Amino acid sequence: MNRRLSCAAVLAASLALAVSACSSSKSSSTTSQKDDSVLSTDGKGKTVTVWLQSDAQKGWPAVVKQANDRFEAATGAKVNVQWQQWSNYTTKLDSTFAGTTAIPDVVELGNTQTASYIAGGAFADLTSAKSKFDNSGNWLQGLTDSATSPEGKLQAVPYYAGSRVVIYRKDLFKKAGITAAPATLDELNSDLDKVKAANAGDPHFSAFYMPGKYWYAAMSFVYGAGGKIAAKDGGKWVGGLESSEAQQGLAEWQKLATTYSVGGTTKDEADQDAIMAQGHTGAILGNGWEVGSITDPKTGKPALAPDLGTFPVPSATAGKYTPSFLGGSDLAVPQKASNAGLGATWIKYYTDSTSQTALAKFAIPNATSLLNVYEAAGAANKSTGEAAKDTWFVPNTPNWANVESGNVLQNMLESIASGKATIADATKAADAQIATTLNAGS
């Protein structure tokens, strides 16, 4: 999932190709089709080709198999799952969509990729059949937003997700006199003061390692304070980081990055797991699966496993959490697919309650109604499941990829963390860049 959570920047370079490759096929759109043609069960003698990432092959192959079996029994079609890798995946999608043959009937995409392909006309419109997909009324918002066009059309289906939580050293917190997870941001800061003081003899110690370019983390605090990255006003995008709410959230983030973090002012979060494995860190903000990365026998430190715990990032109010960025995957039917109706039906089986309940043993399912199943599957799932209930997502526009590739937020945050600019000055510059980028071509 790590690859998937930050892939919009890669998409910027390939967007032009994707748009040109897909726009010519818009005349074959299923927009006007009825449910019985969007979801076909006429599969005798046909084979549905599905592109799934190898995460499923390695993590939950039985979930895939049971969905295939049920789909084949219901339709008479066969399923050919072709396992993919995130590396250079958008390049493969672009070159495939540019052709007219060997088009898969279903593709998996990271949710930060989906908007740009929707804008390029790459996918069939599933709106009229939305109610036929299980739990569509309570899909996770961060996935639903990514799967829906700005005009409100459903052009992909949420698959599964990952959320960020605090991963911390229980032993270090206990030695500092802390016996319970903090309930508010004030309590978190108080706990970190104690952890920092207890390890004052280690010049490399970070009570909470927070890299200066970690924009997913910083924006969680922005949204937690009631702010936004950007919003539409009168048909135009306007940057929202100069608002008092956004600046309050950035001040909370700045405290973590400057008071409790050492050595990461000019870095992003890419190597934070390895840094925590070195033993000089009390806590990080990471996806739940990063616990396994920290303790990996080849790249981490297995001995830390008993000492690692997780909790959702608290908010200013007890009982509520700071929103988490929801990364994950969507499933879509390519516009040029030979078996579009069968592809949509395969997605229906693979994302129904039966499949998602089975998937919940391994990853966050696509609906809030199934989070209790996920949380019950393991002690570590409780915090990530809670974090998935209150989430945020990037502005829903294909131009967002250019904000990421332009490092607008990363550069803003680095200037704040390093003291090169005040929050007010840094956000003013960033808002101007965000507005120009998001409104380009409109």
Automatic annotation (TrEMBL):
Domain of life of the source: Bacteria
Keyword set for this entry?
Signal, Transport
- Signal peptide span: 1-23
Give the similarity note: Belongs to the bacterial solute-binding protein 1 family.
> Which named protein is this?
Extracellular solute-binding protein
Q: What is the lineage of its organism?
A: Bacteria, Bacillati, Actinomycetota, Actinomycetes, Jatrophihabitantales
